[in-house]
Amino acid sequence: SVEVATSCIRFAEGDFDAVPDPNDRQCYVRSEYEQFACPVTGNGGWGTPGRPGDTDMKKHLDLTADENTACSNLVCMGAFYELAEITARQKGDCAVDTSLRVLCEWSVARLNEDIHDRETKANAEEES
To answer: pLDDT tens for residues 63-107?
Structure first.
């Protein structure tokens, strides 16, 4: 079978510089997001441990460059949403952008459908 990288969930490596001090998190609005660096998921979307080794029974594919860029940006959006939630709990003065969460979840679902379709096609080709 063929498995495609699945790092569209969280940062597995790289620096997300919007949290310089975890004990004093700040609240940001969308217009401020562009000033921060969002890491691109490394190792073709597999993250820190890297791509698993292929075997006779299982092959592993990297995300395409476009998939990896999209995944990395979506993970970054989720990180900003979670940052606002944590800041609101810590300080009580941060508005959580629920529409950002909805957009992020919807976008991740669509991207993962595309990745799944590519994985299904690769499995069908492998079997033929």
So the answer is: 899 998 898 888 888 888 888 988 998 888 899 888 988 888 888
Residue 97 tokens, joined: 């952008």
* H or E element in which residue 75 lies: helix 65-91
8, with CB counted inside 10 A (0-12, 13-18, 19+), is buried
Query: What single-letter amino acid sits at 105?
Result: E
Helix 98-127 and helix 65-91: axis angle, to 10°? 150
pTM listed for this prediction:
0.75
Q: Which residues of 73-82 are buried (b: 16+ CB within 10 A; e: fewer)?
A: ebbbbbbbbe
Q: Which residues contact 79 (CB under 8 A, 6 or more apart)?
A: 11, 16, 18, 38
